[in-house]
Structure formats: structure tokens, C-alpha cells
Amino acid sequence: MKFSELDLKPEILKSLSDMGYQDLTPIQEETFSPILSGRDLLARAETGSGKTAACAIPLVQMIDPSVNAIQVLILVPTRELAFQYVEEIDKISRFTDVVPFAIFGGFSMEIQKAKLRDKVHILVATPGRLIDLLYHTKAIDLSCVRTLVLDEADEMLKMGFIEDINLILSCLIHEHQTLFFAATMPDEIDRLIRTYLKGPVRVELNKEQLAPQSLVHHFQYTGRRDRLNALIEYLKREEISQAIIFCNSRHHGEKLIKELEGRFKSISYIHGGLEQSRRTSIFERFRRNEITFMVATDVAGRGLDFSDVSHVINYDYPRDLESYTHRTGRTGRMGRSGIAMTFVTDQELRDLKSLLKMNRIDPVWHGNIPELQPVSKYHGKQNGNRYFQKRPRPAPKVKSYPLTGTIPTPLSSRQQKTTDL
Hints:
By secondary structure, this protein is an alpha/beta fold.
């Protein structure tokens, strides 16, 4: 279905046309109708599927600009996601009188209070800053909120925001619509659903396939001492437009950036310890293609949309299955092709076996293919993931490429590079 076929306001259709939006993604086709009809919604779809627009477009359509009040409240887990979310809404609403605004920590509360007293129709907020303003000021009035959105609801629970979410939701004592969006659905979300959603429409795309289909999953088996050289060789031989290189800790990231800075130009490092202004600057330079390689901790692994990222590289093996899904979801977004490259050592072979099985990944190996260790249920849980007893089955067919020469990939031709939809 095309956006031009929808009964949207002409001003919104003009914005979508200017943004290059033509065809609805599956999540957008499934969610537009229940959102516009006022139904509660629980939506799960792979990262990069267009969840932000699936929520933002109908919400802008529903706003009454003549009412000077907050009509939509959107909660997100991070400042970067709040900034990105409000940018998307601003683009969609640019030809309307709808006013979006974002509040989050790291910026002047006085400036945010002044804007809130002026006019805001759609408020995007991180839980902490919203609670600060609710407690210490009278700048926020939620009595006119008609729709509450929890985006990346699974991540907010993982980050320990459950008490904050309960507090905020308890402030909305009047009738309103509630929308939950997430890439994964852990068990902890069930209680929130039972408590706060009334007869929700459930949209669960790709339930049996967790790995985004536009991704090709590459792996290289290496020793820990050889991993740095393997990464350097990979970066030199691959045709990369932009890459995010993930490390599991700030310390690992600092060591890696020191090794790479002297070998590659246009490289930067992002982590949660940086001041907000510095983090925002790096993300914006990366979006403008001024940075080719971005070494990052998991602060860059959720929700953020970088349209030109051709490769995600797990220099450190992800801590759990969800981290792998969200990291690799920074590429292959909205149907674009992408490559996820993961370096694997002996210590991660058991985890890798579980990953390939649970996410139904057909691996592309570089160099030697290791003998994956069997997964046994008696090992219990590790990193929050349950292992299952190995069942006899035919050996999976895997592709293998030598370490030298050109490896065919969906991105080997620059003619396939797409623009940001």
C-alpha cells in the first residue's frame, strides 16, 4: 500500500512525499488503522522496520492544533532516541501547526520549562526528566493527553525504568489510548500489558524470525590475541560506506580506538560517559557521513537510525541474544541491505550455537569454520538466555570464503546504495 492511498491530511502527505516515503512497511500497514481508531496497541517488529513512522504519522494526523495542550506523550529510554523521535515528528508535521518537543537530561530545565509553557502538542520524554519536571515544576499538564506511547518498552524495562513507568502511568487517571512498541517481548512486559492496556490489538511481525531479513550475518573464528589484526584486515579489504564497531565496555572501546586511530581516518568513539552535547555532536556527524567508522558501546545499539550504515561489526561478542539483535539492527534497516560481522573466540562458541539456532541465522564464515559446541539444557542460563538440549539434525549448510580476495556481499556494488526513506 502507498501513503498516497491513505486518507491523510494533504499537509502530511506533502511532508511524506518530500521525505521520500512512498510505500508503507508491514508494521505501518498493520498499526495505522487501530491507532487512528483509538484502540490500545501492542506492536512487536524487527528493529529498522519503520516503527517510529508507524506511530508518528497517525499521531500527527490525530492532533487538534487549535487545542494548546499536550495531547500525545511518548516515552523513550534514551536522550538520543528522544532527539531522533522528535526530529522525525517535526519532519512529518512541518506543513501543519502541530508542535512537537522533546525533554531529556543534559540540557537546561529552565529552557525546557519555557517551551512547555508556550505550546507543545506532542511531548517526547525520557522518564527521568519527565518525573523531575512533574515533581518540581508546574510546567507540565498531562490532563489532556489522549495517547500515551511507550517506545522501546523492552529496553526501558531492561534499564530499570519500571518504577518510573508505573509512576508516570499512574498520573494519567483519565481515559486515554496506550501504545506499546518493542523489538522484543520479554516476560516482564506481560504485567504492564495486563495493568495498563485494555483489549489491545496485538501486532507481532516476524515472530518466528528474529533476524532482520535484509541482513547477511558474517562470522570469523579467531583467537583473542589475533582479533585486532583480523578486524584491521577486514576493515581494509571490505567496501564499507559506514560501520559501527561494538565493544562490550568503555575500557575495551578506549583500547580499540587507540589502535585504530593511527590506521584509519574519519573515526570516532561514542560511549555513555561522554557529555550529552558531545554524544549528540558525534551522532550528528555520523548521520551526515562525516565519520566512516564509529567505535561504540551499546549506547548506539538501540533505536537509532543511521541510513548509510553498511556494516555492523561485533568486535566484542554481544552479551546476550537481544544485544545481538539490536546491535545488528543498526544496518539493514527499512529493507536496505546490510552486513553484520561478528568475531568469535573459543569462549563464545557455545553462545554462538544458541544464537544461530534461536535467531535462525544462516552464517557466512570467513576463514576456518569452528566445530560448534553442543548446547545442553543442564547449563541453565547464561547472560539471561536459556540454552536448550541439542537435538540431532543434519549439519547446517554454511558458506565459506577465504580470508583473502573479495567477498561477494549485497553491498559489493555501490550502485545498490539506497537513500534514506
